[in-house]
Protein: YjbH domain-containing protein
Organism: Loktanella gaetbuli
Amino acid sequence: MTLKYARTTSYAALLTVLAAPLSAEGPTYTSFGTTGLLEMPTAESADSGELAITSSYSDTAGYRTTLTFQLNDRISGSFRYGVFDIYGSLRADGTRGIATTYDRSFDIQYRLTNEGRYLPAVAVGLRDFLGTGRYSSEYVVGTKSIGSNLKVTAGLGWGRMGERNGVSNPLGGSFETRDEPDVFDEDAGVNTGGQLSVEQWFRGDIAPFGGIEYTATPNLTFKAEYSSIAYEPGQARPAVQVSSPLNFGVSYRPKPGVELGASYMYGNELGVRATFTINPNERPTFSGLDRAPAPIKTRTEAQRAAQSWNRGAQPAIREALAGLLEIEGIDLIGLDMTDRTARVRFENNRYRSETQAIGRVARMMTQVMPDAIETFVLEPQRNGLPMSAVSLPRTDFEDLENTVGSTAAIFDEITIAPAGPDAPLDLAPVPSPKFEWGIGPYLDFVLFTPGEPISPDFGLAFDAEYQATRKLSFVGRTSISALGARDPLVDFRDSNDYVNVRTDQTYFGLDGGLQLDRLYVSYADRLAPEVYGRLTAGYLEKMYGGVSGEVLYAPVDRRWALGAELNYSKLRDQDMGFGFALYETRRNGDRVEVGDYDVVTGHLSGYYDIGEGYHAQLDVGRYLAGDYGATFSLDREFDNGWRVGGFFTLTDMPFSQFGEGSFDKGIRLTIPADYFIGSPTRRTVSTGLRSLTRDGGARLRVPGRLYNSLRDGQFNDLEDTSGRFWR
């Protein structure tokens, strides 16, 4: 038996970002969380890979929190959550009421040209193009530096940015008219929003905006802008009180990656802002905190000429190699030796990169392998599944260790193929201890449910895992909340024709007693040289129990993989015990008996490594609410393990039935722990943010899906991290 710490939930990733040493200087940010002036954008781009979190507040504009990611040198995307007042419908006396709303929106900007000696940088962008449209705008903007301290920006805006002193659209025809975003569905009785209103883009009046930035010191910048946003009163429009189009502000950077702002806005109020930036390309710790690898033990020419060795020494060789690999945090799974070849299967428990683990294993093999062994075949394994077979010529390995260009040279010499069969490997038994457990605090958040921006929970959790074989394991987790018994956390209208397969998640586990978060058995095996299978059964997550099966075809030397998953799941009781019998949905805050709910879901999945760190995924099938559709995902993975991505799901559930947001979409972030601590570890923290948690496009949360577990040991990922081979 061994003790391991219980992990907090993935939302700790955001706290990790805020607490970390941060990136170097770059363009300043707006209260909307994008690069720019005060509210208006500029044509500047942050450094590729920069991630910025901005929070801002002013009296009538309210609160805004924005996550902006610079996808590459030219494209940036933003997700924003705002809390502010909006106007109601027009009353008989000509006045409008005011109500507070929670608003989610997305932005995108593309820089068309770089700044030249005489010409400005030029960018085009969409603000709030995938939300309720309350700030919906399009713009073209140019920015030019004058000397080293002054930058001048001028642009043209449409939509909300085209309201102040606008003129007719010079494109004429249908471009002269722009309708208000049609986000209110009379039949559903909700603001749907969240749709691509392409027919409105760059239509309607056009208005100029601009401003200047003066950098007084490297840390202090003064800003002034003329805003083309008029904030005219109208139903569901932001209720911002404006006396002047001129805004003035200051930006101060007390340390790299921290930007504080203050502003005088709209001619009548003060605003404040804080932006925190971090760039995965800029490691906050020094490189080289890994333990130095063992030196390669080279052979003489005479030793290389040996053709055979004493087979009776194999048990001793195996024991010695297992001991050396244990020092590296690597388990020896199996060994097979012939006259000239040694085949080793291993599981890497320490290094994030399988390439680095392969280099370490090969070094240790030179210490103990007989001189006659000329070829090393290394088979990394993950969760009981061998991922590939890397064949390495020992002589080249010895000769290239200290040569210039050795990384490219060694990858020219190795070959990568499917892992061999288990036989005739001399497989090791499951290492002792087989049972691991841990107890510790947990912190959890449910974000952006209807009517509630955040629902926090914290308490004590107990985790346990029993590894019966390398392929069969039993996993469980129980917890108890420190908040005790609670009333329902949210009260919202949900009058669609579908069962609340996700929107009721905040009602689960409110009884205050011990709750069963998960309890399942998982089995995974290789069905053919490049075909893998998984079967998982039990209480899979807090809302569902059932059975999940998956098959994945992943050619080791291809950029693509294909998978299929089939699930049968049943909705659990909201007390999160062992029962399934009773389920109560809620509509308008009232309990509604619907009885048992079970559903068969399944997806066909395609995965593609685009290159340059970009990975695409398409899942087509049936979701938890019985709706059919597809999910598209795009992620960028950096060489140091950071992963930032986004996704959207479209199904046959009507937008009016889906409710606010119209369809599922969101972003996700994974951060490797070694990025901050410097020492090698496979631990990561992850989080995902949806624009709004709804029932359409919802999938079962199955632990241990195959693709992301296996691709680390296949050709493309090994090649992408080839620089770590000699570390």
